[in-house]
Amino acid sequence: MLPPGGRVSGARLARLLGSWRRGGARQGSADLAAALKLLVADGRLPVGTRLPSERELTDALPVSRTTITAALDQLRSEGVVESRRGAGSWINGPVGGGGGITGVDDTLIDLSRAAPPALPSVRLAMEVAMTQMPEHLASHGYDERGLPVLRQRIADRYAARGLPTSPDQIVVTSGAQHAWALVLRLFVGPGDRVLVEQPSYPNALEAVRASFGIPVPVPMLGDGWDVDGYEAALRQAGPRLAYLIPDFQNPTGLLMPAESRETLSAVLRKARTPLVVDETLVELALDGSEPPLPMAAFGGDSVVTLGSASKSHWGGLRIGWIRASAEIVHRLLSTRAAIDLGTPVFEQLVLAALLESPEVVLGQRRAEALAQRDVAVAALREHCPQWSFEVPSGGLGVWCTLDGPVSTRIAVVAQNHGLRLVPGPRFAVHGGCEQMLRVPYTQSAEVLREAIARLGVVAASVAGTGFPADADLAVPVA
User: Fold this and answer.
1) Over 50: is that where the pLDDT of 414 sits?
2) What is the C-alpha to C-alpha distance for residues 320 and 314, in angstroms, rounded to an integer?
3) N or C: which end of the chain has fewer CB within 10 A?
């Protein structure tokens, strides 16, 4: 059965493609395939759209039929296009969907996730947890709050950061994303507005939309948060909730200073707008300076804080938490049963073991991230000198300003060269950030050097300067 969808004419497709040739005659088919994928990624060629025949395309585009055939063959092999004799060709799957473009492929270097592998301490903590499991097997295993030992150690960590916290203020969840979904379920109804940073974490934005809320962006300034912009947005939008990442903001890497935390907290309290603070990256300060107090130290009970072990320890643990007032915790627990009945016991025991001496484990993670950040910065300066960026003082990625609005094109073309990237517009609410690209530094130094060398080749190709004569694209991907 053929998919539903309209047909695009050769003349219309030629107008959509615009000036697509980048690498000269030898790269004609590759450039055409990349340009067509860009149209798919942008949604200008939706899934199901019927393509013109090769003969019609030859008449509409200033290339040979051989070039068109080779480009379509490439797209078929990647699952973007499907063809059937007598029925023509059509767009089969979106870029980044379930087709062959960004599916699981161990030959690619994955720079789409800013998430590090586990440290050896995680395996040791698992061994400790195994010895503790028998005493829990006699119970029913459900605990909507989380294990008391883990809640106590999370509370102790807040106290060590200057925010006194009791275990009763902690709810353990299955990751920070799950925590955010629980908070949204409690606070946000259909049509409610949620104030967010622009740019922001894509999955957080998707969670707002999934709750039928409306994300309202407040643009970040080059050096941080625009307090005046938040005041204006609060007056104009009347949001039900605000969501911020003040600690090594994802994706910019910016850290909100204490003065801004105090001022912005006061602005939100005056507007009676609850604030949700995502502290997923808070433990990854890399410059050795004393971090500011948590936002909840300034905003009090109006602040709900989300935490996670995914960046500091390992994403595979799937453990997060919520810190909130006793009243909000009670309301969260009363609604949680509609979503889940608690977090797995074993993983909680693993994290509790890791938090017994937290600075030892976190020191290892910070030292690793610092070394990898410096490798990424040096490689970007060498291979992408036309880009600009600020060296982040923490977090797991570099937010680069490109030499043109080509982020999506770079992400599409990079797949042909063994790289998986997230284009800048994914971090925006309604599009934008097309001149930005996040480069995570969560891979080993060797892989980072290889990945950014390839990224430099892609950037040069997209910029129309062609491939360097000595570029070796056949190097195996680690």
Assistant:
1) yes
2) 11
3) N
